[in-house]
């Protein structure tokens, strides 16, 4: 009786209730920037068992939460202050929704009684965030983030609610009710087209002369690697991963069509697309990149996506489950393309020829550095780490584009890049997410100097938490590299200003890391780079390796020149 009376007499405020509720819902990490009115919420959540990673900027914290959702399958949680902090957090919320990654953004907001009167940092945050979330979250916030097509959810907590108190007994009852509600949510119903779609898909693949499996990051998110590897090995069908689908089936697999991409998508007659949208990354599934006669089999959790694309066969469902069912269907009437099959021979020959051409370029030690030489050295150092393989974070125009071809992923969810939106500035946030989500793995960021600059101050966050992250900056003096203007663009009263693409030449980015107590390296030769990688990988401590690159080694806009 005495303990019941004590519980009734003890009060809990909204910050403590929110922190405990997040912990009870299974949240293990939260990313954000504290301030009015959420400082206590962060501390209370940490006391309840949620590790809070404090950032220097909400934008980076949001990208961390988004990547955490992809890597773990659980919603990344982003905490922001009111007004401007919420606006900064929109970058991560929208990025998560665009990439179909689960994220819950929690923002404090002004006192409800003062709304509309010009309160401190007042903003109609629900209206401001609405275009970027799939649901305005309440008790089912975390579950909503992962249901159907994953995406961003938003939870607004006014400051008066955070300061409000209630008896401990009521708080415990509310948390228990929320947990029971989440536990009782019905399992997703099997879509009516699933069995019929699986049967049609297996039949199309069986009858195809030039089949192809396209692996998207949705397949990686769904943990479909075992099922897809079985499909490829059993049927002998070549596969093509999208950038973050790399590693679902190892890049080193003999049926990889990555180095024969144009041939694969241009001549395949049936394409099984798993966890990827037919958007700009896949040329919308249209000619001239694709054959006008190709038949698409789309596997997606979102029925609206399939209705939009109008494939030959559309299957609504989880990628892992659907591919398991296709494997089962094929097992009853098996088929396999032999390595001597004309289609397989054409893909493997083209891939081998292209790899040999690239390796000939990579074999040269070019100094001053181009992109190829340092990427070869980085690739070899990463592969030497073995398993568990490092998580590679990649952003920047040329750095990311060339790196996608050179760097090798043999394990799933070990590549993070600009994603569906082509977002620059994700790098350091991604690094921090990967380091806490995959603590057994080294994290290696391969960054252009422009991409690095968006979130460079987060090197202090790396040092503060002593995370095993090595950041490699390709320093070519600017966006795309230096001044690439034509003579007719260098006119007018400000013609002597630096070019819009130019940065301070040979900037000392490594010194930023040293200023906070991490390790910094300036490298200009192959031997210097090999030494810096060896020492920093072995130490597994925060480091920045600043690589001086020839400013004219890359191309403007990387491989997207046609859009600039």
Q: What does this 3D model show about the protein?
A:
- The protein contains 23 helices and 19 strands.
- The longest helix has 21 residues, at 342-362.
SSE layout:
Layout: H1 2-9, E1 11-13, H2 14-24, E2 29-32, H3 39-47, E3 51-54, H4 58-72, E4 76-80, H5 84-99, E5 103-109, H6 125-129, E6 135-136, H7 141-146, E7 152-158, H8 159-163, E8 165-167, H9 168-183, H10 194-207, E9 211-215, H11 217-221, H12 225-235, E10 239-241, H13 261-267, E11 270-274, E12 295-300, H14 303-309, E13 313-316, H15 319-332, H16 342-362, H17 372-384, E14 391-395, H18 397-406, E15 415-416, H19 427-437, E16 443-448, H20 449-455, H21 459-465, E17 469-475, H22 509-515, E18 519-523, H23 526-539, E19 543-548
Parallel strand pairs: 2-3, 2-4, 4-5, 5-7, 6-7, 9-10, 9-11, 11-12, 12-13, 14-15, 14-16, 16-17, 17-19, 18-19
Antiparallel strand pairs: 1-8
Helix pairs in contact: 2-3, 2-9, 4-5, 4-19, 10-15, 12-15, 17-23
Which consecutive residue ranges, at least 5 long each, have pLDDT under 50? none
Strand order in space, largest sheet? 3-2-4-5-7-6
Calculate the terminal CA-CA distance, rounded to whole Å. 73 Å
Structural class: alpha/beta
Shape annotation: globular
Radius of gyration: 25 Å
- Major sheet description: 6 strands, parallel
Proportion of residues in extended strands: 15-25%
Please count the beta strands (DSSP E, at least 2 residues each). Answer: 19
Given the structure, what is the number of helices? 23
Average pLDDT, all residues: 93
Helix content: 40-55%
């Amino acid at each position: 009786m005495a303990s019941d009376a004590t519980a009734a007499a003890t009060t809990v405020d909204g910050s403590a209730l929110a922190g405990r509720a997040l912990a009870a819902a299974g949240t293990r990490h939260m990313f954000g920037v504290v301030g009015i009115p959420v400082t206590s919420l962060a501390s209370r959540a940490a006391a309840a068992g949620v590790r809070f990673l404090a950032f220097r900027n909400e934008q980076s914290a949001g990208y961390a939460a988004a990547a955490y959702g992809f890597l773990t399958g659980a919603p990344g949680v982003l905490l922001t202050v009111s007004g401007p902090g919420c606006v900064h957090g929109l970058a991560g919320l929208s990025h998560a929704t665009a990439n179909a990654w689960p994220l819950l953004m929690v923002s404090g907001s002004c006192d409800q009684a003062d709304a509309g009167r010009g309160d401190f940092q007042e903003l109609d945050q629900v209206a401001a965030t609405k275009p970027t979330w799939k649901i305005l979250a309440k008790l089912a916030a975390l579950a909503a983030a992962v249901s159907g097509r994953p995406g961003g959810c938003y939870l607004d907590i006014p400051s008066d609610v955070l300061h409000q108190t209630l008896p401990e007994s009521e708080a415990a009852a509310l948390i228990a009710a929320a947990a029971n509600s989440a536990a009782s949510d019905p399992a997703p119903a099997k879509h009516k087209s699933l069995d019929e779609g699986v049967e049609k898909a297996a039949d199309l693949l069986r009858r195809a002369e030039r089949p192809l499996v396209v692996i998207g990051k949705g397949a990686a998110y769904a943990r479909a690697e075992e099922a897809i590897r079985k499909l490829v090995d059993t049927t002998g069908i070549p596969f093509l991963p999208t950038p973050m689908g790399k590693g679902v089936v190892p890049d080193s697999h003999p049926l990889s069509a990555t180095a024969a991409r144009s041939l694969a998508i241009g001549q395949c007659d049936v394409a099984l697309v798993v966890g990827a949208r037919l958007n700009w990354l896949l040329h919308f599934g249209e000619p001239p990149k694709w054959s006008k006669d190709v038949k698409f089999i789309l596997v997606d959790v979102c029925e609206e996506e399939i209705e939009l694309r109008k494939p030959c066969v559309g299957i609504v469902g989880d990628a892992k489950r659907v591919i398991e069912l296709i494997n089962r269907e094929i097992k009853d009437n098996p088929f396999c393309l032999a390595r001597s099959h004309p289609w397989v021979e054409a893909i493997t020959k083209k891939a081998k020829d292209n790899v040999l051409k690239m390796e000939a370029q990579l074999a040269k030690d070019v100094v001053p550095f181009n992109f190829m030489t340092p990427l070869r050295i980085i690739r070899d150092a990463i592969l030497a780490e073995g398993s568990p393989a490092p998580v590679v974070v990649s952003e920047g125009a040329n750095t990311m584009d060339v790196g996608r071809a050179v760097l090798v992923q043999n394990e799933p969810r070990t590549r993070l890049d600009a994603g569906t939106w082509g977002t620059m500035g994700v790098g350091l946030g991604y690094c921090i997410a990967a380091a806490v989500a995959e603590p057994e793995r080294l994290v290696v960021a391969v960054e252009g100097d422009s991409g690095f600059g968006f979130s460079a101050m987060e090197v202090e966050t790396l040092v503060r938490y002593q995370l095993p992250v090595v950041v490699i900056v390709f320093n070519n003096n600017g966006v795309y590299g230096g001044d690439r203007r034509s003579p007719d663009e260098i006119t007018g009263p400000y013609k002597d200003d630096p070019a819009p693409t130019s940065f301070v030449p040979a900037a000392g980015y490594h010194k930023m890391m040293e200023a906070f107590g991490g390790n910094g390296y300036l490298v200009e030769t192959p031997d210097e780079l090999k030494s810096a990688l060896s020492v920093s990988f072995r130490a597994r401590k925060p480091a920045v390796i600043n690589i001086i690159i020839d400013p004219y080694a890359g191309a403007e806009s990387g491989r997207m020149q046609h859009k600039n």
